[in-house]
Amino acid sequence: MRKPTHKTKILQEGLRVVHERGYSASSVRDIIQAAGVPQGSFTNHFATKEAFGLEILELFYEPIQKLMAETLLNDALPPLKRLRMWAETGVNSLNQNNQWNGCLLGNFGAEANAEIDTIQARLAEIFSEQQRNIAYCLRAAVKARELPAKTKCGDLAVFIHASFEGSLLLAKAQRSLVPTERFKKVLFSTLLSPSA
Amino acid sequence: MRKPTHKTKILQEGLRVVHERGYSASSVRDIIQAAGVPQGSFTNHFATKEAFGLEILELFYEPIQKLMAETLLNDALPPLKRLRMWAETGVNSLNQNNQWNGCLLGNFGAEANAEIDTIQARLAEIFSEQQRNIAYCLRAAVKARELPAKTKCGDLAVFIHASFEGSLLLAKAQRSLVPTERFKKVLFSTLLSPSA
């Protein structure tokens, strides 16, 4: 295995630090210290803290894109099963082991302010893409007669996405898995139940 | 009208600043400058920034408690009507006039980390109280036969609360009212429709 570069260390450890403490609460010094690299290497690799923030956003989003490709967008599987796999894997991969860090996307969304414009713009794109992918899967479910023909897939997709992010946020704030458990339970017993 | 005290100015302007920029991103200097009071008056009134954070949390929560008393807990009105008033007034009072600040409770929840323990603890209490109040109203709706007898009110209350906060978070991040509009629409056309 090749030794990780300073840039890789900064991104990996920096992602962990920002996910734990929040973007504004994490100083460049915190990130450098966690990565165990010399002070100068941050500025060597990132023009600004915002540029670093954008890269960790992509790093966090990569496995989510992979998950969406394997579930929401995977026409080889029954649509509601795909949706369930996406929802369960998504919420179950966060807030684990008493690490109440929530979802980095949601955290960035809540923190977003005028001072981190490029991060906010990219985040808005990511959220739109997630909503499009959920809607794609819902439309497949309607086509497969797993959901009623009258289902408003675009509206429902945004609602499900909000519930998903909201449950991760409440789980973090309440330090409890109850909100994410209720999200999965109510979603599949009501909104996405075959008889809905 | 009595002239506002320094403490009142710090709380009012500080709440605005923190709601706009986030808690960690707002320095005591930012807050003092916005309030137009001398540097020393912050430390005169607040032992720590965290103590100030707790007070603005209460200040923000006050009208929400009032709203819940007038809607969710108001037995003089039909239950689903109360729920609709709560949901609509709640989301419509935030993210207005192109100020994409989200909900201060959700923002604190997403930012919360080990360094702001007392704020996090109070926030968890507030979220539990909101969920209890939603559940109270849902149980009243079941009793009034506005919802089916089989409705799992406790589970559904947490789900609705997550969707509510999630939609405010997405609206903020996407700088669009679509997520909160979809929240209201889907909530009342599916989960809380009389035929559900």
Could you tell me which chain pair has the largest interface and how many residues each side has?
A-B, 50 and 50 residues
Secondary-structure class of chain A: mainly alpha
Percent of residues of chain A in beta strands? under 5%
Radius of gyration of chain A: 19 Å
Number of E-state strands of chain A: 0
Oligomeric state of the chains in view:
homodimer
Number of helices of chain A: 9
Shape-level CATH architecture of the largest domain in chain A: Orthogonal Bundle
Mean pLDDT reading of chain A? 93
Say what the CATH topology of the largest domain in chain A is.
Tetracycline Repressor, domain 2
Low-pLDDT runs of chain A:
none
Q: Which CATH class of the largest domain in chain A applies here? A: Mainly Alpha
Sum up the overall morphology of chain A in one term: elongated
Biggest pleated sheet of chain A: none
How widely separated are the two ends of chain A?
Answer: 51 Å
Quick rundown:
2 copies of one chain form a homodimer. Chain A has 2 domains: about 1-45, Arc Repressor Mutant, subunit A; about 50-190, Tetracycline Repressor, domain 2. Helix content of chain A is about 70%, strand content about 0%.
Structure report:
2 copies of one chain form a homodimer. Chain A is 70% helix and 0% strand. With 196 residues, chain A is an all-alpha fold. In chain A, helix 1 (6-21) packs across helix 4 (49-70), helix 4 (49-70) runs antiparallel to helix 5 (79-92) and helix 8 (153-174) packs antiparallel against helix 9. The first copy, chain A, has 2 domains: 1-46, Arc Repressor Mutant, subunit A (Orthogonal Bundle), CATH 1.10.10; 51-191, Tetracycline Repressor, domain 2 (Orthogonal Bundle). Chain A is elongated. The mean pLDDT of chain A is 93. The longest helix of chain A is centred in the middle third of the chain and has 27 residues, at 117-143. Chain A has helices spanning 6-21, 28-35, 40-45, 49-70, 79-92, 104-111, 117-143, 153-174, 178-191.
